[in-house]
Amino acid sequence: MDGKAPRTRIQEKNTAAILEAALEVFSQAGFRGSTLDQIAKTAGLSKPNLLYYFPSKEAIHVALLSGMLDLWLGPLRAVEASGDPVETILGYVQSKLQMAREFPRESRLFANEIVQGAPRVLGIIEGPLKELVDEKAVLIRGWIAAGRLAPVDPHHLIFSIWATTQHYADFDVQVQGILGPSEARFDDAAAFLDHLYRSALTPR
Length: 204
Hints:
Layout: H1 9-29, H2 36-43, H3 47-53, H4 57-72, H5 74-77, H6 85-102, H7 104-115, H8 122-145, H9 154-170, H10 172-179, H11 184-201
Helix pairs in contact: 1-2, 1-4, 1-7, 4-7, 6-9, 6-11, 7-9
């Protein structure tokens, strides 16, 4: 027990409203271009009411990023030694693409944070995120050594998966501008990425 009283239903509702509003505002205007007044207005709350829940714009931003990172890293944590290595990694690719499809604002929020030098999440990147990626790199190297996976650099493999899947969220305007607004772009991307990574990872 941490000694804190449980939040009431209205407190939980208002917190969720603030985070949803902040996600909308931050994903459109970025951290620097957003204000507490904009977030409060979007949430349907007064600024003093908002400040009851979060002391600053940065506190809201950190709460969003922390929750998003936990969600975003779930599929990578699920990459385990059991099962076929190629199919396991392909499953990770498809999970990441699906998240880009379902959570584009969250992806753009994180991209904006990274472009700014990750001032609010650098500790997470250099700590827990690095540890998780290094852990999965060891697993991938083990698969390669056992001849179950084509020889690739594990870290750059993970980076490339992030790049090729999150592109469809972070640069959605560009993708739609070229391909049109049809949801088929995600289905086509899923088929293409499956072929791309299957070809690259299957042992010869």
